[in-house]
Every structure is written in C-alpha cells, then in structure tokens.
Amino acid sequence: KAAEPRSDSSGLRRGSLCDRHCAVINNVQGDLSDLGCHLHHPRVPPAMCSPACCQQHSDEVCESCLMKTTLTAENAVEANKLSNNYKFGFKKWKSHVTARPWEDRSEIVKELYSDLNVVRSSGGSTVTCGNILYLLLFGWWLSLLYVVLAAVMFITVVGAPYGQLCWDLAGYFLWPFGKVIQKVEVQRSRQALGAREASTEASGAGETSPLLSGPMPHRWHPQCWADTRHWQRAGTVAWLCLGYPLLVLAHGLVCVTAWLLIVLIPVAKLSGRTITSVLLQPPEKVLIRRLKMTEVPLEGEVILCCYHAVNPYYYKYAVDGINVFAVNLLPLVLVTLVLGYMDSHNRLTSSSIKFTLALLSIMPLSYYIGMAIASISAQSNFAVGAVVNATFGSITELTFYITALIKGSREGNRCYAEVVKSALTGTLVGCVLFVPGLCMVIGGIRHQEQRFNSRSAGVSSALLFLSVGGVFAPTLFSKVYGKLVCGECHNVTQNPLGHYLCHNCHFDLMDNNGTLYYSHVQPLVYTVSLLLPAAYLIGLFFTLKTHSHIYDIHISDCHMPGHHHSAVVHWSRWQALVILLLSTLCMSACADLATEHISPILTNSTISQYFIGVTVLAMVPELPEIVNGIQFALQNNLSLSIEIGNCIAVQVCMLQIPILVLFTIFYPTNFTLVFSDLHVYASMFSVVLMNYIFMDGKCDYFQGTVLVMVYFILLAVYFFAPSPSGC
C-alpha cells in the first residue's frame, strides 16, 4: 500500500518502528517479543529486515503493534500452540510440539544431536574435568577388559587379528579424546595393491559416467566379496562367541549409566556406536589414529571422533520431542507398577519406598499428559482444545484426591480427607506465591525488570478472589453458626467461675442430629459447587470470546528465509490421544499405590500431616508446570509464568473442589467443604499479597523474593502445626 506524504520526523519515526517490528518478527531465537516501549534491543538489526516484510506490515499495522504481542513460529501448528498459551483455561506448554527446522537451531543444540564422527580443528586441551571423570568411571576398567580379551583372542590363534584390534581399542578407550577411529577401504596387508588401484582410477577417464560426473563409486569394487567372506572366517566365529558378547554387556552398561546421568550422553553415544559399528567391522579395516598425527582422513570413513565426555547442555536434549529427563524417568513408572502390584506384602521393599516411587512416577506422567494435551490442542480447533484442557487439565491432581478419599472412606479414617484438604490448600498457596515468586527471582537474574500484561493478570486475579471466597464460604458459615465443642478442659484458677484451658476444640455441625449441617451447610456447599464452575465458564467466554483483545495476540506471517512452513509434528492427534489415555491410566495406578502406602507415613511420621499434604502431595505433581514457568521467565515472558500459577489456582477452586463435592454425592466420603482456620488464613493472605504485587504490571527479583519468603514462612507454620483432628 502506498504511503501518504508525511513530514520527515513522522516518516522517520514510523520507518524505525516498522524496522523494529520486522526485526522482532524475523527474530528466530525467541517465541515472543513485546513491541513498542517494551522493545529495547532487538537481536536482529533493522538492516536485515527485508523490504517485502516491511511492505506487508503497513503503517496501520505498525501502529497497532504498539499494543500487541507478536508471536513468531515456524509453522501454523506451532503458532496455534503459542496462541493457546495465552488463552485462559488452556495448559501452558513451552516445548515444541513440532520438529524445529535444523537451520534455526543454535550451534550448541546442533552439537547435541550430531554423531561422533566429525573431525574438527583442535579446540584446546582434552584434559578437562569431564574427561577425567570418564577415566575414573569407565575408562580404566573398559581398557582392562579389552586387554584381557586381547589375550584370550591371541590364545585362540585364529582370532589373532581381533586380539590386535582389542589391544588397540584398550588404548583408545582408556583415553578416547582427540583420537579417530576410521574404516579404511583397503586392507593394510594390501596397501600397495590399493594404491595401484587408486592410481588407475585416478588416471582412467573411461570409468567416469556423465550422469555421475566422477569415478565409479568404491562400493562397486570386487573387494565387497571380502565382506561376505569375513563372516565365514573361523576367527570371526571365535570373536562372536568369546569377545563380542562380553563387550556388548560392558558397553551396554556404560551406555545406560551415561544416559541416565544426562551430561555424559556423549559417552553413551560413544559406547553405542562402538557396539553397532566398530566391533562388527573386519579388524583389518579398523584404524585408530591420534588427531595430532592426521588431518581429516581422506582414505576412509570416520566412525568415532570424540573430544569431550561431558556436555552440560544435554538438559535440552529431546527424543521425538520428549525431554531427556522425562525419557529417563519413564522406566521408574514401570518399576513402581511392578513393585507395587507384585510385592503387595512388602517383602522386597517397604511402604515408604513404594510411596516415594509412586510419587516420583507422577512427575513424568504429568509431563506426558501435558505434552499430549498441548499437541492435541495445537492440531485441533478451539472447541476440541477447550474440551481436552477442561477434561484432562486437572486429571493428575483429581486422580490422587479421589483415590485417597476412597481409601479413607473404606477404612473409616478421617485423616485422608484432611490430607486432601491440605493438598488442595498447598496447591493454591504454592501456585499463588511460590510459582510466580520463583519465576520472578530466576527471570530477574537475567532481566533487571520484567513486565507483564496487567489486564490479563487482573482477570485471573478477579476469578481467584471469587473462587477463594466461594470455597471458604461454607467454612465461614460454620464458624458463625456452628457450636464450639472441646475435647477436654481444665480449670486453671481452681475457681468454678475462673478461666478454663481447653484442647481439641472444633465447631460441631452435627448437633441436634445434624440439623445445622444437613439443613444449612450442605445446601450451601452444593450451591457454591454449582456457582464456581459457572463462573469459570463465564471467565472462559469473557477472555476467549467477547474480550479476547485484552491479550493482544498477533501471529506474524513473516518468517526467516529457510523456514519450513510445513509442520512435522512429534505426535499426531491419534498418537497424542493414545499417550494421553495410557498416561492417565498409569497415573491412576500410581495414585492408587501412593494412597495405599501413605498410611505408615501418616501414622508413624513425627511431621505434621498438614505439612505432608501442603508440600509433597501438593507440589510434586506441579513440577512440570514450574519448569515451564521458569523457562518462560528466562525468555522475559513473565506473563505466561504468572498465568501458569493463576490458572492452576483457579482450576483448584473452580473445578477440582466442585468435582470432589460432586463425587461425594455418588460415593459418600468424609470430605466436607469445611477447612481449618489455618487453611483459610493462609489462602486469603496469599491471594491478597499476590494481587498487591501484580498491581503495577512490572516486577523484579526483589518482589519475587518476597513471595518466596512468605511461602516458606507459611510452610514453617504448617511444619510446626499440630496434626489435624482425626489423624
């Protein structure tokens, strides 16, 4: 669109704004950038902005972007996922649901996924702490094993070539750094013949093909028949029977151990390639050289070339889109289920160990559920995404709460209901204070001051005030109209009219055959349980339909050259649905095991049951959400970090608690919507403090420290509090 004539100053101002706008759009390092006054240092200079991009965004678009948040994504699916992060009620997910284009990744990430077969220029000394750690953990005994196998293969005579190979590999695996293992195409004993054949190929132009534009490929050489004869040798049979199985076990142990340690994944790759490539080669084709003695080998294929055993950036590594931590914790789920259901009499392990394993297994399952929900929502329309998020968004917590209430009802133990109330309060307080506070502190280390959308945070805060008031309304009602009953009282002054010291006091709602509870408190609980989900639906309609502009989300159409617009999803919709259902099923089993083996901890532990519910049972299922919030804060996107905590807290009050009340109608339990005074005061104080901190739309690490310190003070109160009545 042709621009109208303007003054020089206006044109300069609008042009620089458009340049900055396009620079941010072309910024492929981050997923989000705030334009206007919040944009200080774009990472892509305006000179790199193409004129076509600026032409797409006219002056009107640039003016509107002053109040918009621009999202850049590689494809439509990823853009849909980023947009869902800003929608109220949708699960916030940081990781990609599609494969990122290789050219858009940093050199550090590219090195994580590269094979150990690239010879680079010397980057310094190979004597590092990580390499020394490899020597102490694996190098010395691997080298000793190769020496022993070398002696065994020399004794067999027919396996002498493999004995020489094992002797060479003993020196290599003692210190593999700065050395190269390559596959030579000619046998060492016939190097002269190979050189003569190479000279013939170099001088003979008749063997070139106009279609191939070069000499005939080496794979057509008659020496390929030697590979077939290799497997028929007596030495090879002896090697496969005596040496290779032991080395597979040894390198397999190294591979598994290094993979579980994550930072030692290069060692795992080293062992894996040794099993599949090096040890299956004919010994005369394996050549080991020091890097200082050779440049890039021209006469053979590089099989292994390792420089460092430790890479601290492997926490970013993903397998089919799944983070390496979630991959490593998945076997823990299988171990938990096998021990829990096969060892029901605690012959192998105790109840405390089973409870700990079940609780730790919830973390990877929460990750898989979150990624499955994000994948389905990103590949579906708004209605399907809203239904999936509403159905499975709180499945982790509800599964544990319902199984605990069922067990408490069967045993007639009120302690389970009190633990569930403590877990609900702990989730509310933790997501209001600890999650945003921790994100502010960690994000404030990198960014001096962080800003967020105060209007969207205000909507969540208003819903949070409403939900907290509704949840604790029956408790306040019982305090006003209930009858105070004490377990035991003692006269302190020995005067009948004097002061009495009473213990175990509580408000009795079942006086006069429960008239107060059944006629007044219970109808109030049901009314609140109907109004809170209705308010949640109104909030969804307000933020997603009628007033969606308060989030100011703009999906950019500009991409860097080389971006792939076609989405290659990690999980298809059906695959994500299957993973979601399986993870939910395993989550139910782990929750059942956790509640089954929590009894000894509640009865024998000296720690208050309040503290166990508020900390362990409340925050462990939320660890994947906390990690997502920290990652958003590090990218200067504190709005999503705050929304993560607010949305979880709102869902606790407006969805989880009403569902538990509805569940008690069909399956009677000891759960009543009457909380202790400590829960009421802690929750209300946390919500008031959170709203005070978020009023101005900006924060720093000091305000985050205040929230975290208040959270730890509340934890100290719960720690020293006496156990609830009934426990």
Describe the structure.
The protein is mainly alpha-helical and 727 residues long. The protein folds into two domains: 105-184 and 232-316, no CATH class; 317-555 and 565-720, A middle domain of Talin 1 (Up-down Bundle). The chain has 27 helices and 14 strands. The chain has a three-stranded mixed sheet with strand order 1-2-13, covered by helices on one side. Strands 4-3-5 form a three-stranded antiparallel sheet, with helices on one face. Mean pLDDT is 76; it is low at 1-67, 187-226 and 558-564.
Largest sheet: 3 strands, mixed
Q: Distance between termini?
A: 73 Å
Number of helical regions:
27
Share of helix, binned:
55-70%
Output mean pLDDT: 76
Task: Tell how many strands the DSSP assignment holds.
Answer: 14
Instruction: Predict the CATH topology of the largest domain.
Output: A middle domain of Talin 1
Q: How much β-strand is present in the residues?
A: 5-15%
The CATH architecture of the largest domain: Up-down Bundle
GO molecular function: calcium:proton antiporter activity
Protein name: VNX1 protein
Main location: membrane
InterPro entries: CaH_exchang (IPR004713), NaCa_Exmemb (IPR004837), NCX_ion-bd_dom_sf (IPR044880), YccF (IPR005185)
Describe this protein with a few key phrases.
three-stranded antiparallel beta sheet, three-stranded mixed beta sheet, disordered N terminus, 727 residues, mainly alpha, transmembrane helix, 2 domains, NaCa_Exmemb, transmembrane, phosphoprotein, A middle domain of Talin 1, VNX1 protein, single chain
